[in-house]
Amino acid sequence: MTPFVADVLIPVGKIVAVILYPMIMVVVMIWLERRVVALMQLRLGPNRVGFQGLAQPVADAVKLFFKEDIRPRQADRLLFNIAPVLVMFTSLLAFAFMPLGEPVRIGAYTLTLWIAESPVGLLIVLGLSSISVFGVIFGGWAANSKYPLMGALRSVVQVLSYEIPLGLTVLTVAFAARSMDLVEIVRRQESSGVWYGFLMPVSFVVFWISAVAETNRAPFDLPEAESELVAGYHTEYSGMKFAYFYMAEYAHMVLVSSLVVNLFFGGWLAPFPSVPALDFLEVVPGFVWYLVKIMFFLYLYVWIRATFPRYRFDSLIRLVWKWLIPLALLNFLVVALVRYLR
Amino acid sequence: MSEALERSPFLLTKADAFITWAQKNSLWPFGSGLACCAIEMIATAAARYDIARFGMELFRASPRQADLFIVAGTVTNKMAPVLRRLWDQMPDPKWAMAMGNCAIGGGPFPTYSVLQGVDRIIPVDVYVAGCPPTPQGLIHGLMTLQEKIARSHPTKEILDPDARRRS
Amino acid sequence: MPEDAADRTGLDGILEALTGRFPGAVLAGAFERNELSVRLAKESLASVLRFLKDEAGFNALEDIAVFDNLGAAGGDGRFTVVYRLCRFPGALRLRLAADVAEGASLPSAVPVYRSADWAAREAFDMFGVLFDGHPDLRRIYMPDDFEGHPLRKDFPLAGRNGGA
Amino acid sequence: MELREYDLNMGPQHPSTHGVLRLKLAVDNEVVLGVEPVLGYLHRGMEKLWESLTYHQVVPLTDRLDYLASLSNNLGYCLTVEKLAGIEVPGRARYIRVVLAELQRLASHLAWVGFMANDIGAMSVLLYAFEAREDVLDIFEEYCGARLTLHGIRIGGAVRDLDAPLVARIRAVLGKVPDRLDDVRALLDENRIWKERTVGVGRLSGADAVAHGLTGPALRASGVPWDMRKDIPYSSYDDFDFEVPLGANGDVYDRYLVRLGEIGQSIRIVRQALDGLPDGEFAAKVPRVLKIAPGEAFHTIEAPKGVLGFTVRSNGTDKPERVKMRSPSFINLQALDAMCRGYMFSDVIGILGSLDIVLGEIDK
User: What is the DSSP code string of A315-334?
Assistant: First the structure.
């Protein structure tokens, strides 16, 4: 293994793979959402473009690429252009820390299926996902018109207040795994034989609700409420800039789903590690299990969107301050006590 | 370069075919309805006739993200300037469809307050007759529009931007 | 229409009460198709409406219709403004008609019936009938810079500038 | 830095104004201080046009008023002309008209549930409700060839007789609608978010509702039991027994329950009308050139949106001198300002939706 291959080729290969991975997941997600929501609503969904509509997201992307890119004259030039980049960049960057599977041994070299492993990986991913809020704020404010501004304001309040229960529940996981390193958390779940999702169900539920709110998805999709704020913070965006927002939302969903899988459902572990009878599942590589679990959560996102109406702004805030945060605090206390007594 | 356009080299037509394939299969209509035809437009997007099969079910509420402006209903003189501004706000490769007799030519209302046809204010690509046109009629109109897009040459416009103004 | 007999007494009572309370105002009272139709002098309209709502229990103003009798023989005003009232329990119907000359105004019903607000604005927009005492009398359908009143008989159907 | 409220413009092109209505909102951050609707964006000058058409030619134009309930408009106009001209409508024709009017109420309320739920965010309900409505539209298409602007009720009766296969088809659809409705109810009735968005929102007391001249389901949701089919019966409605669903505290949730209740009652009426369908002519003999002696008539019916009234004045010729329409949505919309004060911006969408307004009927 010449140093050139080890130091340049493999990292570059991994980086390209980790960039392509969310992009492909986004394309799949766009198709999956339109088909699944359609099938839930007694209709067929796109099935004319390519085989069973699989080429639909490609058609959308190419069309958006060739659209005229309008910037309103009264818009703030710099912020208007930065916003979509910011939203997309943070989502993709966070994937660098996401362990996608068991390290693979090729001859003497062990290929680790993630780019960076850092003892505070969890904090970095959370930090990046809250930076993407800036993109939404800049986008909403820069368009200099009333509806995007209202969308941006709503998004600020919603995402910031849902960060708190998110952070608390993540702390309980870090507590249980005694580390902030995403890879370590999965290994800890493997060694302790139980997934934290089952060990601390309350943490999982609170985390999942605030994760849905974090990505501005129904029933918390107030910042881009179709029927109220026309198109929310991306009303003034068209062409590729809008495509960035559109894809960033799905990338953010994939990121949060992989975070949930990683923290609560044992990243690349085969299901139920402690049950010896299910050992034959080990033969399937970790990455496949990881994908299956993520697909389940993405399906859950779409399912929720098709069934629930939209919250009103004040009931959304009341939900988090009156219910989620006290619950998260209580749960944190319980976990801390259990850790202390153990 | 412009004489090369006339011979439409193999490379360009291939590019045209690909771009128009994408544009025609992802026509996002603008979610604006004026009168009775709007209800039939929504019925076309609903479960039984379902234009989602052609990738058109994403009714964009903001003109910035819409490609197709279906004028569904009566255009009154008071609504005409608003309609014209909505049309101007839409980004460029955009198409307009006059749905229903009111949008085509004033329909059953030869009165003081009705604009006798939306093509007096915006260039219309496809006219769908009917009062209101049945969902099958509207889907037929959408098919015709898709054929029209398939015949268009977007690359010619990119390489020679003022071609449209000259023709 | 089964309610002939019972209704007449109710309406008769109201006709007497009206002619009693407002001797000068009530010009004519007639029963067509078991509805009481009363022609009033326009000045007394506000007080009659107040009386009908408070004492006679007509709690709903259903409609304000305006008729342009340009060229019709006689009649002291060009426009006839018709108020249609209804009493909810018992469903009694009453028609009040008042004649207004062109350009003249008549007292508005908004202080008595809140639902008269837009109906009066529509009457003004379409016919040019002025209502004094109306909170904000301006056009409701036509754009504000529109000249003329479309529903008048002398206004062409296709509009003055050919309905561009 | 002093805070000041700003005015927000909603419309005339907005996803949830149900057409071309423009609302000028004075908003303080998200709380609504005042709402001023601006109308006229769909004013087609119907009443002027009617003065230059014969009595028969006016009927298809009444379809385009409340284009979600065109048969009710036809029925309102035809009853007024029959009252003016003294035309006697045969029993069978009256029963057919009741069947058609109640099916139209069914279709209109189903469309309303779909639009209302979509405004509050529950997208799937729109598709479920429209699927049920498509079944009803199939009956209309088989009966008179059109789906939306039906022109199915003419002066003197109906356009065609209800033959046996069509009656069987109607009964089949009446069987299917309730279970499609159960899907809608399962999604919405006890849904916590739906109730949070609708219970106690846009509350209007009974007295205020009557003072504002509200009619129809919006009035009955405030507990005022005024239904034209019961109080001033027309077209032999008094032969059928049905209840009038009432609400308790006049908020958006009660209007939702009242309309769903009315769907159930409409199904009941149609079944009774089909069972008791008398035989005889489906329409009275009305001369093609109908000349009516000078006179004036006012008649109201219970349209899906409220009390729909027509005033027809004749001058002896075959063209009406004046046809004035009393539109329920026009009067109901006036109460929007009183209902929206103090609520959040997203509640305005819910309250406007609960009034079930149609712009064709407001702007005429």
Answer: HHHHIIIIIIHHHHHHHHHH
